[in-house]
């Protein structure tokens, strides 16, 4: 168990929310009592972490071989290494979101694969498809999380597979989870060099991006989505996203269509803090009106 009193009272749900991969994520849970549960594969082994906050004090319990590692990493997880003071809002919508969300901090897990693999699963598919694949793969090939999070009516929490376990998943299991050969092959290439991937957690943004994108199938979008979480990098802007440029453009200018180049130009005043600016814009709730039918996912597991 560990108690910690952070500066500024980070909002647990705002800060840790990006670690959850949709409803029913076997590795992440927010419970009605305000606790946040996280199952992770650490350098010391699998572990489960439960975090609560009251009166400015954070309390954490952990179980499993990775318990000590998770407790030691708690401050970074809650944004202790994130310094928001250099951030200066340049637009009214950003200023208002910044004012309304003083507890936002950028989490840093220090673990690369646990964010890289679900980011690969999210390539070129809907969120629902990717979340379903993550749930199925963890429940079928992961291991039950240590401690009291095991079992229960929802099947309990699971720690994601170790690199070798990922490599042993047969092709038909990827297919059953709705993961095409391109994404599964990218994951297999990444887990073969897992140690090299994990080293990116200690690198600056440029070096970490270069380390991840040397793997065929991992581009700037996937690298940014990973490093936002593993490294807590405030400038890791997601480029190549289907929706983000339009959201940024609409919030800042009212334009209904914006491409990546225009988005980057709009966020240029926030250089060094572009990911934080994008998070705040998303929290503002200003989104363009829907102009096209919702994309109908294609279930390859039935093909």
From TrEMBL:
It comes from the Bacteria. SUPFAM superfamilies: DNA-glycosylase (SSF48150). Residues 1-23 are annotated as: Disordered. Transmembrane segments: none annotated. Signal peptide: none annotated. This is DNA-3-methyladenine glycosylase family protein. PANTHER family: DNA GLYCOSYLASE, DNA-3-METHYLADENINE GLYCOSYLASE. Keywords: DNA damage, DNA repair.
């Amino acid at each position: 168990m560990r108690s910690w009193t952070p500066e500024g009272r980070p909002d647990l749900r705002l800060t840790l929310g990006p670690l959850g991969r949709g409803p029913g994520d076997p590795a992440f849970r927010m419970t009605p009592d305000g606790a946040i549960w996280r199952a992770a594969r650490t350098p010391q082994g699998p572990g489960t972490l439960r975090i609560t906050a009251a009166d400015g004090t954070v309390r954490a319990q952990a179980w499993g071989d990775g318990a000590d590692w998770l407790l030691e990493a708690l401050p970074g997880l809650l944004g202790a290494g994130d310094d928001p003071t250099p951030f200066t809002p340049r637009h009214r919508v950003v200023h208002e979101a910044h004012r309304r969300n003083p507890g936002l901090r950028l989490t840093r897990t220090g673990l690369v694969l646990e964010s890289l693999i679900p980011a690969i699963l999210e390539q070129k598919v809907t969120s629902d498809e990717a979340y379903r694949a993550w749930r199925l793969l963890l429940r079928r090939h992961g291991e039950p999380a240590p401690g009291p999070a095991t079992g229960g009516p929802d099947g309990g929490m699971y720690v994601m597979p170790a690199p070798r376990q990922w490599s042993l998943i047969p092709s038909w299991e990827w297919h059953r989870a709705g993961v095409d050969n391109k994404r599964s092959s990218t994951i297999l290439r990444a887990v073969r060099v897992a140690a090299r991937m994990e080293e990116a957690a200690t690198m600056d943004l440029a070096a970490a991006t270069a380390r991840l994108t040397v793997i065929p199938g991992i581009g700037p979008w996937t690298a940014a989505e990973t490093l936002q979480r593993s490294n807590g990098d405030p400038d890791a802007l997601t480029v190549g996203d289907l929706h983000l440029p339009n959201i940024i453009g609409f919030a800042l200018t009212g334009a209904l269509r914006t491409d990546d180049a225009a988005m980057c130009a709009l966020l240029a005043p926030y250089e060094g803090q572009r990911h934080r600016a994008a998070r705040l814009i998303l929290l503002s709730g200003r989104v363009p009106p829907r102009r096209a039918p919702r994309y109908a996912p294609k279930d390859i597991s039935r093909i």
